[in-house]
Amino acid sequence: MTQCEKQLVRASFQEIREVAVPVARLFYGRLLDLEPSLRPMFREDFQKQSAKLMDMLATVVDNLEDPEKLNPVLREMGLRHAGYGVLPRHYALVEKALLWALAHALESGFHAEVREAWQGVIARVSGAMLAGVAHRDMVQER
Ligand code: HEM
Q: Among residues 39, 93, 111, 137, which is most buried (max CB within 10 A)?
């Protein structure tokens, strides 16, 4: 990820933070529209769940200079997600819903470069979460 992309992600997240609750609402609405069968997986209160998602994104954005530092945390999170019933194919839906919510929140500020930079961030997070699951499956097969 280039310095310019990191800067675009940081600056746009600054705006997102101010409207975190409506953005999270847009995100979950879109996710459940894309895949209504996911609804029963979400048991926690919406406000609490969106705060956790936004906190995690903030941690990711705060660590763009040293993203590997978060790998252990993200792998553990991937394992917890497998426990919630999340499948690898669901990550593409989350990516789609998150980009859609960011686009709605940032409007014209979500231009092609910002979109690409965010896509890179989300793909990295998903990749690290899925690496946790892949590693566990590999160990279990031995
Ligand atoms: C970019 C990838 C993702 C991030 C950053 C993320 C973030 C989080 C965080 C921080 C939590 C709080 C609990 C915990 O840490 O285990 C959580 C819970 C959860 N996430 Fe994710 N998540 C991601 C991908 C997904 C995907 C692909 C799904 C499946 C559709 C999903 C469904 C859930 C569910 C069902 C819960 C538990 C909610 C509850 O107990 O009510 N997440 N997520």
A: 93
Number of CB atoms found within 10 A of residue 80's CB: 11
Model confidence pLDDT, tens digit, residues 87-113: 999 999 999 999 999 999 999 999 999
Whole-model pTM over 0.70? yes
Collapsed DSSP state (helix, strand, coil) of residue 66:
coil
- Shortest-distance atom of ligand 1 to CA 55: 10
Supply φ then ψ for residue 57, to 5 degrees.
Answer: -65, -40
pLDDT in the model for residue 10 = 97
The C-alpha R_g of the chain, in whole angstroms, comes to 15
| Alpha-helix residue ranges (DSSP H) falling in 1-142 | 3-18, 20-34, 46-62, 71-84, 90-106, 112-141
Structural domains of the chain sorted by starting position, each given as residue range(s) with its CATH number in brackets: 3-141 (1.10.490.10)
